[in-house]
Design a protein that fits this description.
The complex is a heterodimer of chains A (194) and B (806).
Chain A: H1 2-10, H2 14-21, H3 25-38, E1 45-46, H4 48-52, H5 55-59, H6 63-70, E2 78-79, H7 80-88, H8 110-121, E3 128-130, H9 131-142, H10 148-162, E4 169-171, H11 172-178, H12 184-187
Antiparallel strand pairs in A: 1-2, 3-4
Helix pairs in contact in A: 1-3, 9-10
Chain B: H1 15-41, H2 55-62, H3 87-112, H4 116-119, H5 122-139, H6 150-167, H7 171-176, H8 178-205, H9 216-226, H10 231-241, H11 245-275, H12 280-312, H13 322-339, H14 344-362, H15 365-396, H16 403-428, H17 438-446, H18 452-459, H19 469-497, H20 510-530, H21 535-554, H22 564-582, H23 597-601, H24 609-614, H25 620-635, H26 637-640, H27 654-678, H28 693-698, H29 730-743, H30 750-764, H31 770-789
Helix pairs in contact in B: 1-3, 1-5, 3-5, 3-15, 5-15, 6-14, 6-15, 8-9, 8-11, 8-16, 9-11, 10-11, 10-19, 11-12, 11-14, 12-13, 12-14, 13-14, 13-15, 16-17, 16-19, 18-19, 22-27, 25-27, 25-29, 29-31
Classes of the chains: A mainly alpha (194), B mainly alpha (806).
């Protein structure tokens, strides 16, 4: 496929990228096309405003968090590699992968997906979801339709349920445990990125 | 009339076993007797036939010209009949009631016999009972009534079961797997029908089977009748094996959706059996017909569902008839669909599924319970009756046994099911994220049970067009027996053997709820970034549309604005509190309310006016009256039962409103208790915990000056802190008294309760020490209360926790 190859050749280090994320060339091309469509000014990087231009994302209650997740701390722009790396989290997990403890956890395994979601909650990156952070998420999800008291009681109950070591915050392990019944692979995968 | 009754005394001489068996046998005997009596005395028996029995009487009433004149004009005086027997007058309702009674008593009886119900699924036992009853009637020499009449089945027995299934259908797993389900339902059934029909025809053509008069089209018709997986049988068997949600919804969904296919194939082949051949045009017409039947059925159901939802918006003043709307609209949806030969089952499912989220937001809690219980009751009775009637119909015959035909049918059905499932899964797995494993495939294939729908469809066949109808019926019955008995009985041990994942018993936690919503938003966002119109995108769009337009129309008052997370949270609290109360302990309602001065001034952001009018206007005293009422009604259910019988007084529902804050307070108490047991000897009067706005919503006033009394102690030293910032009103004191009299029990609640009881005593210290003795007494009364408070009801399924379109 000529166009695929030509597009692929435009991207530096594409082999390494595919290796790391497990995407096929077709996926990379598709994502690259999307990247270019978003990058209106053709700078080769995306800025928060480019993401903000996606209308539907603006309506999303956690839209700004998602956008924030693409940008590493301190960075103002996202290049294609980082873009693809983040999206690789949402690839459906490979069932057939042999459990090799020496290899690093692939980016689309259940744990990595959960870690990504956890980081969206944990904005200050201290490894725990504190009550305040949970309240923030609830507030944005419930879109001002409820009172502060209701939010607080829900937050209290949530922490009470999940918090096993009683530190009034949810650590990653507790987070993972509370979601053990949910099929994360199913919930956090986008089909076309197979 | 000789009746052969097999009575053998079981070797264990366990009284229950004996009693159970005796009961069963007596019931069967009774049933047989009455029916034969009825049969003997009336010329025409038919469970639903009106022209039997009451013929004479009815003619008199209708005054049909030309009918028999029974009033004699010649008046002969005879002795005034003091006591007379007139069976014909009540025959039909009596027989119907007797059947229903038999069915219900059977259900009771099975559970009295201890180990039986764990080995043999209920459906098998019921068929056996039906066989026995039929056998009794036959032995009596009377004609067995054709009880599984198709009209009766399709119009009366089937709808409750389907409505129950549709109303409580877990929408999310259903929608998530809808592609798979449709594949199995449509393609799988088609494959089965043609495979079985075609091969049967081929077998019939073989010399030596004496079956060569069976043509292709009747064979295909037979194939289509027998290939449909039956929802009743699947429900009956799968209910008992508690298999995981995915498999359950796959098999069950398939059994529901294949109705459309069956209807179309059945009508197609039936029509053209007369003509003898099917042209390609007919095939195309058939496909179009299928689309119309299925989509039309769904549309009809959805329309009625929306009507029901809309009606329920206005029922706030006539709460008593709310459940009626649910039932009647659904039944009418079914009948309307059947009128147009659309798929009634799909209409019913669509109606139930569409109306449910809106109706539940509108109707009162009691109506909700009523709907749930009635549906479960009717569907349970229907199911029981269906299986019994199957047994009776088997005995009734007529049968035409043909070894080849029957055995080939059974084998082919099994083979085609397996091949169909394996083949389809292979294709489906390419599109699924979570693949179906071999174990799953096995269960799906093995769980394809046939049931009474196949029989009724066969029964409907015209005798003239289909001379081999009796042979078909025999084969259908054999197949049904085979699947229900053999597959039904062995599926449970197989599930255990293969270690198939079972249903998760635990309810959804609020963590799961929050995080899954969060993940939904996340995935929608990511899909938007990728520019992909995936399935989250559409779900999100549907949700927005729903929230913006539909909910406004269909949900009463301001409740439509209540986000689903909040509704879920309330439900959880509610449930947990009810559980706490039912376990009989930890119920301490401090007479004093937390300081509410600040709370009162904070208006909830939108105080829903409709909800405000649901709450009673209150004064402090009225508030306590309400609490007392709650306590009374909850804790003294035995005595309360006969009190409010008047239909009209059921309307006002303060119970509901006071409930919320009562329960939330309790939860607070428990949390505080937990915290307290960790603190040691630490006397505080903690700040009043923030009040949940549900409480604000439910009540408009509270006792502003009272304080929250808590004692902090970890080692049972009754250090009492009674903080009397305000004189407690005598009412509240009284209530507490009553409370501790009946509420406290320490059955299995552990040390925490010990601590709290001390607290009660502490609070009561100013009252009288008489409280202590009364408490002891209260403890003894409790087993009785526990029994009446504990009402397991139909199995607690987590369909209730399912938010609509999460």
């Amino acid at each position: 496929m000529g166009s695929t190859n030509s597009t692929l050749s435009k991207i530096p280090n594409v082999e390494e990228l595919m290796q790391e994320t497990g995407f096929t060339p077709a996926h990379i091309v598709r994502l690259y096309d999307r990247f270019e469509a978003l990058d209106k000014e053709k700078t080769g990087h995306l800025r928060p405003q480019d993401f903000g231009a996606i209308n539907r994302l603006a309506m999303n209650p956690i839209g700004d968090r998602i956008i924030g997740a693409f940008f590493s701390p301190g960075q103002e722009t996202v290049d294609f590699h980082s873009f693809v790396r983040i999206l690789a989290h949402f690839r459906p997990a490979d069932k057939k992968r042999p459990k090799d403890p020496s290899m690093p956890e692939p980016v689309n395994s259940r744990t990595s997906k959960l870690k990504f979601a956890f980081q969206l909650y944990d904005q200050d990156k201290d490894g725990k979801i504190s009550r305040a952070e949970l309240l923030q998420v609830l507030r944005s999800m419930l879109e001002m339709q409820v009172t502060e008291e209701q939010l607080e009681s829900i937050a209290d109950r949530t922490i009470q349920e999940a918090d096993l070591d009683k530190d009034d915050a949810i650590s990653f392990e507790e987070f993972r445990k509370s979601l053990e019944k949910v099929n994360i692979d199913h919930k956090m995968s986008i089909r076309f990125l197979r | 009339m000789s009746v052969r009754v097999a009575l053998h005394s079981p070797t264990g001489s366990r009284s229950f076993l004996e009693r159970g068996l005796l009961l069963l046998v007596m019931l069967i005997f009774l049933e047989g007797t009455v029916l034969t009596l009825g049969a003997a005395s009336s010329p025409d028996i038919s469970a639903q036939d009106n022209t039997g029995g009451g013929h004479d009487r009815r003619d008199d009433h209708r005054g049909i010209a030309g009918s028999h004149e029974h009033t004699n004009y010649t008046y002969t005086k005879k002795a005034f009949p003091v006591l007379s027997l007139d069976y014909h007058h009540i025959q039909v309702p009596f027989e119907i009631s007797l059947w229903v009674l038999l069915a219900s008593l059977m259900k009771l009886g099975f559970h009295l016999i201890p180990r039986l119900s764990s080995i043999v699924p209920e459906s098998c036992l019921l068929i056996v009972v039906g066989l026995l009853v039929g056998g009794l009637i036959k032995l009596a020499g009377e004609e067995v009534p054709p009880v599984l009449d198709s009209n009766l089945f399709f119009l009366c027995l089937l709808p409750p079961i389907i409505l129950d299934a549709g109303y409580f259908l877990p929408i999310r797993p259903f929608m998530e797997n809808i592609g798979t389900i449709l594949m199995f339902a449509v393609v799988g059934t088609l494959w089965n029908a043609f495979f079985v029909g075609g091969l049967l025809y081929a077998v019939c053509q073989i010399e030596g089977t004496y079956l060569s008069q069976v043509e292709l089209l009747p064979c295909l018709l037979f194939g289509s009748i027998i290939s449909a997986v039956d929802p009743v049988a699947v429900l009956a068997v799968f209910e008992e094996i508690h298999i995981n949600e995915l498999l359950h919804i796959l098999v069950f969904g398939e059994s529901l959706l294949n109705d459309a296919v069956t209807v179309v194939l059945y009508h197609l082949f039936e029509e053209y059996s007369g003509a003898g051949e099917v042209t390609p045009t007919d095939v195309i017409l058939g496909v179009i017909c299928f689309l119309i039947v299925s989509l039309g059925g769904i549309a009809v159901g959805a329309i009625y569902g929306i009507l029901a939802a809309f009606t329920s918006r206005f029922t706030s003043h006539t709460r008593v008839i709310e459940p009626l709307f649910v039932f009647v609209y659904s039944y009418m949806a079914y009948l309307s669909a059947e009128m147009f030969h659309l798929s009634g089952i799909m209409a019913l499912i669509a109606c139930g599924a569409v109306m449910r989220p809106y109706v539940e937001a509108n109707i009162s809690h009691k109506s909700h319970t009523t709907v749930k219980y009635f549906l479960k009751m009717w569907s349970s009775v229907s199911e029981t009756l269906i299986f019994i009637f199957l047994g009776v119909a088997t005995v009734a015959g007529p049968h035409a046994w043909n070894w080849t035909f029957v055995s080939v049918t059974v084998i082919l059905c099994l083979v085609s099911r397996v091949i169909g499932v394996v083949g389809l899964t292979f294709i489906i797995n390419k599109f699924r994220i979570v693949k179906l494993t071999t174990k799953d495939q096995f269960i799906v294939a093995y769980g394809g049970l046939r049931g009474a729908i196949a029989f009724s469809l066969g029964y409907l066949l015209d005798k003239d067009l289909f001379p081999m109808r009796t042979m078909f019926l025999t084969a259908i019955i054999t197949e049904i027996f085979f699947t229900v008995f053999v597959q039904g009985m062995t599926i449970k041990p197989l599930v255990d053997l293969l270690a198939v994942k079972k249903k998760q018993e635990a309810k959804r936690s609020i963590n799961e709820e929050i995080h899954t919503q969060f993940l939904d938003h996340l995935l929608t966002g990511i899909e938007d970034i990728c520019g992909h119109y995936g399935h989250h995108h559409w779900k999100d769009k549907l949700n927005r549309f729903n929230k913006k337009y539909i909910k406004k129309c269909l949900i009463a008052g301001e409740r439509y604005k209540e986000p689903q997370l909040i509704a879920f949270y309330h439900k959880m609290e509610f449930k947990q509190a009810i559980e706490l109360v039912e376990s009989g302990g930890g119920v301490k309602l401090p007479s004093a309310m937390p300081s509410q001065v600040s709370m009162q001034n904070i208006q909830p952001k939108k105080l829903p006016p409709a909800v405000a009018e649901r709450a009673l206007p209150q004064f402090t005293k009225g508030r306590e009256e309400e609490i007392r009422k709650i306590l009374r009604s909850n804790l003294q259910k035995t005595r309360q039962r006969l009190r409010s019988y008047n239909r009209h007084t059921l309307v006002a529902d303060p119970f509901e409103d006071g409930w919320n804050d009562f329960l939330l307070k309790k939860q607070r108490m428990i949390e505080l208790e937990k915290k307290m047991t960790e603190m040691s000897n630490y006397l505080t009067v903690p700040a009043a915990p923030p009040d949940s706005p549900t409480m604000c919503r439910a009540r408009l006033a509270s006792d502003p000056n009272a304080f929250y009394n808590i004692k902090a102690s970890s080692d049972g030293v009754p250090t009492i802190q009674v903080d009397l910032a305000s004189p407690q009103s005598p009412d509240s004191v009284n209530m507490l008294n009553e409370f501790s009299k009946r509420g406290a029990t320490d059955q299995g609640l552990g040390q925490r309760e010990g601590a709290t009881r001390d607290e009660d005593q502490g609070l009561m210290m100013k009252l009288s020490s008489a409280g202590k003795e009364e408490k002891e007494e209260g403890g003894n009364k409790n087993p009785g209360l526990m029994r009446c408070l504990s009402d397991p009801g139909p199995s607690n399924e987590d369909e209730e926790d399912e938010p609509f379109l999460p």
